[in-house]
Amino acid sequence: MDSIAKKSKVKRIFDSISHRYDFLNHFLSFGVDYYWRKKAIKLSKLDSNSILLDVACGTGDFAITAKKFNVNNIFGADFSMNMLSFFNKKAEWSNGRLVQSTAENLPFKNDSFTNITVAFGVRNFYDIKKSFQSFYRVLKNHGKVTILEFSLPSNKFIRKIYLFYFDKILPSIGKLISGDKEAYKYLPESVGEFEKKIDLKELLTQNGFVKVEQHFLTFGLVQVVIATK
User: Fold this and answer.
1) What is the pLDDT of residue 156?
2) Is residue 142 helix, strand or coil?
3) CB 61 within 8 A of CB 37
4) pTM for this model (two decimals)
């Protein structure tokens, strides 16, 4: 799929499922997604001094969790206006702090943020290299980018169960609840393709980031990658 087609497809999918997105995230992950976000924030050492940009912010769960960790200066960017609308409904403080934007072309000045977070969004970028260059530009020196993303478990038994759930069960439940037959077929396909083609640590290093850390959570189902400018 070329970049233009992917950009259009991703926007259509997330606009379509925005009304059921939060419920499906919590339901399909059995609620473990709450733990993943909190753990990523703790590993990033976000605090009251942080100036945070949450990219592919969706309906705001990551940013809202960061707010509970005393991060007060928070901005969000997402390509789906429907997602941003739900974010605004969930958090009054977000008004005026959200922009409709792709990760590849962030509309912010150089050296604006101490931290960037992306939760389950990198695999949806139409040009990951360009996105990381954009991150590097808007981050302050010594700023950090934190990526929370799915990964394929190294344990063969766990991987087999994981793939069965992703390929067979998740698409059916997602279709039934969201009403979009393509959206939850795209999810397992995008995770598999991402795992084969993208090495986050290597790509971040190639685009100027240093001190790249990688942490695996919940038997390797997800990864947290943290890199410093």
Assistant:
1) 92
2) strand
3) yes
4) 0.90
